Amino acid sequence: MIEADGLTKHYGSFSAIQNVTFSVPRGQVAAFLGPNGAGKSTTMKILTGYLAPTSGKVRIAGFDLSNQRRLAAEKIGYLPENGPLYLDMTPASLLSFFAEARGMKGEKQAKRIEEVSEQFGITQVLHKPIHKLSKGYRQRVGMAQVLLHEPEVLIMDEPTAGLDPNQIRDVRAIIRELGKTKTVLLSTHILQEVDAVADRVIFIHEGKIVFDGKPSEMNIDGNGREHFFHHLTGALETVEEPKE
Q1: β-strand partners of 29
Q2: Residue 129 CA from chain centroid, whole number
Q3: How far apart are CA 134 and CA 169, in angstroms?
Q4: What does the alpha-carbon distance between residue 48 and residue 73 come to, in Å, rounded to a whole number?
Q5: What is the mean pLDDT, run by run of 10 residues, along the chain of 244 residues?
Q6: DSSP 3-state assignment of 95?
């Protein structure tokens, strides 16, 4: 459902990502893991058509993003980090606005807004200005908007960033549920996110894929996930021995 083939992005002499290649099949939740600045957001923007690669190809549900962008976009739901919302609008008016932009009108629009409002638990705040909502509720509104057109592929950039523990738990539960019927790729630098929601881990460091496997494989000599993270990013090799 998601195919990245040799994605490279240059900004002048700087390479944000280099030859990034992976695919995510239907019904899988994949965590796109890596330290800050590793190239996660750049890759996400390329996968969703917000940014063009210097080289490489993206296919979403079989559609080539370079020449079938509209068909590919119909299959994608994208939630960027701190997803932009019109704060003076209510969730009801926001969802109506995006539904119309997606070509939904009348009974179809009303039914779909009701469905996503119930799915994400925002029915009770539908007519409250978004600027008065907690960050957790704003994230729920953003996810409801992303799911309005029933996309088959969900791409989420740091979906739990800035949330409190209860809100994080709720969002992770929603992601696990969505993963039963959707293809989900979420970027994160939080190891707990991997254990909580992911079937698979794609690890990027300094713009290159350095690991692709199951969360259970993220281990070296029984030392756990953090040791593995440090190993992949070279942090273990750069720690200096204390001077005597």
Answers
A1: 184
A2: 26
A3: 15
A4: 7
A5: 96 95 94 92 92 96 93 91 85 95 91 93 95 91 92 91 85 89 90 89 95 87 78 61 42
A6: helix
